[in-house]
Structures are given as structure tokens and as C-alpha cells.
Automatic annotation (TrEMBL), chain A:
Keyword Transport among record annotations: yes
Keyword Oxidoreductase: no
Protein name: ATP-binding cassette domain-containing protein
Species classification: Bacteria, Pseudomonadati, Bacteroidota, Flavobacteriia, Flavobacteriales
Pfam family for this entry, one: ABC_tran
Keywords tagged on the record: ATP-binding, Nucleotide-binding, Transport
Organism the protein comes from: Maribacter arenosus
Signal peptide residues on this chain, from the entry's feature table: none
InterPro entries linked to this entry: AAA+_ATPase, ABC_transporter-like_ATP-bd, ABC_transporter-like_CS, P-loop_NTPase
Gene3D superfamilies hit by this protein: P-loop containing nucleotide triphosphate hydrolases (3.40.50.300)
Molecular-function GO terms, alphabetical: ATP binding
Domain ABC transporter: 2-238
Automatic annotation (TrEMBL), chain B:
One matching Pfam family: MlaE
Protein name, UniProt field: ABC transporter permease
Lineage top rank: taxon: Bacteria
This protein's record includes keyword Repressor: no
Segments passing through the bilayer: 38-63, 83-106, 185-205, 225-244
Entry keyword set: Membrane, Transmembrane, Transmembrane helix
Span of the signal peptide: none
Keyword Acyltransferase: no
Length: 255, 245
């Protein structure tokens, strides 16, 4: 569980996060949604400890990142996995090398133990024939799978995904979304996913936090998001013609 | 960012490079890779350039000797002095600022814009140590290729002098050996080592702290080349004053 209390963050004159408070639950895919530029990535980088909040606090199961010693911070980091928006695979390493990298850095496992573990997580994300390929040789969807495999190879307690389905076709996007949700359940991870994709909300949104201009405008579940009267939320949710039509049909059906 | 602020963050970066080292098992292979890329990969171009610059220096010197009173061995002497004192250490370093410097800036800059550096930091890796330290260590071998460049440069002068009919082999070799001051070589290698550090760190700085996308990576590589060259030129002046003045 991650508790976010009144987090503020600005860069120079740009005031990005203006007092965010919320809780991300364990064993759930928590979604942070909002338009591009609303501060989702900045929030996730605060959760990761890459940015420190100007004000407010973030606690990971009671540990407040900013109050930990550098060594404790490093230990906490090793409990976190991150899937970056563009996958951020190391392009000088093979798929297998990417997945083994955290093990090589932080464990004393033998080469064959690391191979086995990498093979296991790569199979878990349904990739079993790309071990020796380089990131530039595989598709965007496969890169995402590798990024997920790398993020879970150390058995993290927390998994963060920044727009995991951006740049993917709708079908692949749904597969990736479901994979993230399955892994979250299977290993009982606290997962936070940034997205602006309503399909993800429909698929995996158990808890949803809606950001607008650096403020938490709304939060709730996926059932609630379709019923809310909050205008900012409905404008966001029903911005596509498809969802407008679905809503119209829903209202007509009710009357 | 102001110049002072940049110098400050450069200094902080250097300190950070030496903190919290990466596991030796991994670092070893990173260093070997950088030696291959930065040192071995630069050998060809430096040999090529040194040979022809040596030749040109010999020809220019010969063409400018008009008086019969000037000894014939001056061609060899002048070639040796220019190559050892300036062309090999300084001129080659400017070439390296272009070749190795832009490679370093663009490779680190690409890692920055594609969030690979964030990925390292999220894992708890000291990204500066991981990326910059092996480059500094690899470039400790830089004096070796400059030594080769000195030999080749003088050899280029000999070829141009003898086969171009500007000097006899005996005169040239006599000139090369004339009034040899061993400290000049020491001076050249001190400069080379300082330049090696500059070549590893200034381009890394420009890549590591860049912002933006692919276009900015290109711009950062250009800026990095300009600053690396400027700093090398200035340090060359200061070191010459300190060591020979
Ligand atoms: N390191 C940074 N320095 C300055 N401004 C930043 C930085 N990171 C993000 N921003 C700014 O923060 C705002 C929100 O960005 P971001 O969190 O990436 O939005 P989102 O992920 O919701 O699309 C943007 O205007 C962006 O320019
Ligand atoms: Mg974003």
C-alpha cells in the first residue's frame, strides 16, 4: 500500500502537482488517469523516489522515502519495478541481458540461476523465443513485455507502469493491460498504472484517480466513473465518439 | 544555465562518478567495451591524420628554408618538435573531441531521452558511475595511442621529406635526434592525460544532463564538441605555461 499525503511538486515556475492525497491499494491495479501534461508521470516519479516532493509525504507500507537513509532508500528501490512509457530497454543488451540486469547488479546468483529466473519471467509474459534478440529487433508490444519482465524479475512489492499501452494497437494494448493485472493479483503487488486510455479503465480499473492540472479531481472505481456527475471526469471519459454513443445507448435503455 | 552553475554541476558530477561503485564483475566488462570503442576504434583515424600532418609539417618547413646558412637537419628537427609538442597531443585531441566526444554525448544523451538512465536509477544503480567511470578508465590508455601517433607523424615527415626530395634520410634522422629533451615527451603525456579526462567527462556531462528529444541529442553533441575543444585549447595554454614557461 502506498499512501500519498498532500504532495506538491514544481519545477522552477511550473507548478505541476498541487497537493495530491490518495491511497494506492495492495493487490490492485490502481489507475492514474488524466490528459497529457496533467502530471501523471511526475506523480509516478515521486512514488519511485526519482523526484522528491517539495511538500507532503509518500509512504510505502509505512516507510517514508524521504526519511530513509541512502542505504534504506536503495533497499526500498529494489522492491520497486518500473515499466517506462517507451519501455526504456537497454539497447546495448539482448532481451535476456535486459531481464538479467537487475539480478547481475544486486544478487549473488550464479549465471545459470539468473538465466533460469530470466527465462521464467520471460515465459510469464509470454515471450519464449526472443531471448537473444536486441530491443531494436522486436516489436513495440514485445518490448513492453520485456520491460514488464525486467520490472518483475526481482519480485517487487510495487509495480509502476507509465502509459504501458501507448503506441500499441488496441488488441495488443488490452493484452498488456491484462498481463499487468494478472501479475498484480498473482504476486499481490501494489500496482500503479498511468494511462489516458479509456479502454484500460474499462479493462483493469479497480481504483481510479483522476488528475487534472495537478489536482486530484476525482477518485473511485470503474463502475462509479460512468455514473459520476463530475463534469471534468465526464468530459474526459466521453471525449471519444464511441464512448458518447455508448453512454447515449445506456441512457436510452434506462428510459 | 549560467557558466558558473554549469561548472558547479560538472564538479558535482565528477564527485558522483566516483561514489557508490558498480560491481567489479560488471565494471570490468564495461571498461573492456569502452577500450574497444574509444581507444581501439580511434587508432585508425589518428594514424591516418598523424601520417599526413607529419608529412605536411616536413614539406612546409623545407619550403620555408631559403637561406643556405640554415642546417639541412632542421626539417627533421622541426617535424619532431611540432609533432611531439603539439600535433600529437593537442591536434589529435581536438579530432578526438569530434569523434569520441560526439559518440559519448549522443550515446548517453539517447539513454537520457529514452529514459534508460531513469531505468538505471530506479533500480538503484549509480548511473554516473555506471556510464562515465568506465570511459575515464578506458581513456587512461589514450597516451598509448598518442605515442603511436607521434611515431607515425615523424615517420610521415620522413617519408614526405625523403621521397619528396626535400631532405636526405641521414639529415632528417640527424634532425630528429638533435637536442632531444626527454621532458618534452613527459610534458606531452601530462597534457594527453589531462585531455583524456576532459574527453571522457565533458561529453558525458552534456549527454547526461540534456533535456528534450532526438533533435536535442544532435544539438548536445555539437555543443559538447565546441566546449570540449575550447577547454582543451585553454588547458593546453595553461599547461604549456606551467610546464615549459
Ligand atoms: N523534469 C522536469 N522538469 C521540468 N518540467 C517537467 C519535468 N518533468 C515534467 N515536467 C512538466 O510537468 C508537466 C506534467 O508532465 P507529465 O507528468 O509528464 O504529464 P503526463 O505524464 O500527465 O502527460 C509538463 O508540463 C512537463 O513539461
Ligand atoms: Mg506521461
Amino acid at each position: 500500500m502506498i499512501e500519498v499525503k498532500n504532495v506538491h511538486k514544481s519545477f522552477g515556475d511550473a507548478y505541476i502537482l498541487k497537493g495530491i492525497s490518495t491511497v494506492f491499494d495492495k493487490g490492485k491495479t490502481n489507475l492514474v488517469i488524466g490528459q497529457s501534461g496533467s502530471g501523471k508521470t511526475v506523480l509516478i516519479k515521486c512514488l519511485l523516489g526519482l523526484f522528491s516532493p517539495d511538500k507532503g509525504s509518500i509512504s510505502h507500507d509505512g516507510k517514508i522515502y524521504s526519511q530513509l537513509s541512502p542505504k534504506e532508500q536503495r533497499n526500498l528501490r529494489q522492491d520497486m519495478g518500473m515499466v517506462f512509457q517507451g519501455s526504456a530497454l537497454f539497447d546495448s543488451m539482448t532481451v535476456e541481458g535486459n531481464v538479467m540486469f537487475p539480478l547481475e547488479m544486486f544478487t549473488k546468483q550464479s549465471q545459470s540461476e539468473m538465466r533460469d529466473r530470466a527465462d521464467f519471467v520471460l515465459k510469464r509474459v509470454n515471450l519464449d523465443d526472443a531471448h537473444k534478440k536486441y530491443p531494436s529487433e522486436i516489436s513495440g508490444g514485445m518490448q513492453k513485455r520485456v520491460a514488464i519482465a525486467r520490472a518483475i524479475v526481482m519480485n517487487p512489492k510495487y509495480l509502476f507502469c507509465d502509459e504501458p499501452n501507448s503506441g500499441l494497437d488496441p488488441r495488443t494494448a488490452i493484452i498488456i493491460d491484462n498481463l499487468i493485472q494478472e501479475i498484480t493479483k498473482e504476486y499481490d503487488i501494489t500496482t500503479v498504472v498511468n494511462t489516458h486510455d479509456m479502454n484500460s479503465v474499462m479493462e483493469i480499473g479497480e481504483k481510479i484517480v483522476f488528475l487534472k492540472n495537478g489536482i486530484k479531481e476525482w477518485e473511485g472505481t470503474k463502475d462509479e466513473i460512468f455514473k459520476t456527475d463530475n463534469e471534468a471526469v465526464t468530459n474526459f471519459v466521453y471525449s471519444s465518439e464511441l464512448f458518447k454513443k455508448v453512454r447515449q445507448m445506456y441512457i436510452e435503455e434506462r428510459n | 544555465m549560467g557558466y558558473l552553475a554549469s561548472i558547479g554541476s560538472y564538479a558535482i558530477m565528477i564527485v558522483e562518478v566516483f561514489r557508490k561503485p558498480t560491481k567489479w564483475r560488471i565494471m570490468k566488462s564495461l571498461i573492456l567495451k569502452e577500450i574497444d570503442e574509444l581507444i581501439y576504434g580511434s587508432l585508425g583515424i589518428l594514424i591516418f591524420i598523424s601520417f599526413f600532418i607529419g608529412g605536411v609539417v616536413a614539406i612546409q618547413t623545407a619550403l620555408n628554408i631559403t637561406s643556405e646558412l640554415i642546417p639541412k637537419n632542421l626539417v627533421g628537427f622541426a617535424t619532431r618538435q611540432s609533432i611531439i609538442l603539439e600535433f600529437a597531443p593537442t591536434f589529435c585531441s581536438i579530432i578526438m573531441a569530434g569523434k569520441v566526444g560526439s559518440y559519448i554525448t549522443s550515446s548517453i544523451g539517447t539513454m537520457r531521452v529514452t529514459e534508460q538512465i531513469d531505468a538505471l536509477e530506479v533500480m538503484g544503480v549509480n548511473a554516473l558511475n555506471y556510464l562515465v567511470f568506465p570511459k575515464i578508465i578506458a581513456l587512461l590508455l589514450y597516451p598509448f595511442i598518442i605515442a603511436i601517433s607521434m611515431y607515425v607523424g615523424i615517420f610521415g615527415g620522413w617519408v614526405a621529406g625523403v621521397f619528396g626530395g626535400f631532405s636526405t634520410s641521414a639529415d632528417f634522422i640527424e634532425g630528429v635526434q638533435l637536442d632531444f629533451i626527454p621532458f618534452h615527451v613527459t610534458y606531452a603525456f601530462i597534457k594527453t592525460l589531462v585531455f583524456a579526462f576532459i574527453l571522457a567527462t565533458i561529453p558525458s556531462f552534456h549527454g547526461f544532463y540534456m533535456k528534450g528529444g532526438a533533435l536535442e541529442v544532435g544539438k548536445a553533441a555539437t555543443t559538447s564538441f565546441v566546449w570540449t575543444s575550447v577547454v582543451i585549447i585553454i588547458l593546453n595554454y595553461i599547461l604549456t605555461q606551467l610546464l615549459l614557461g
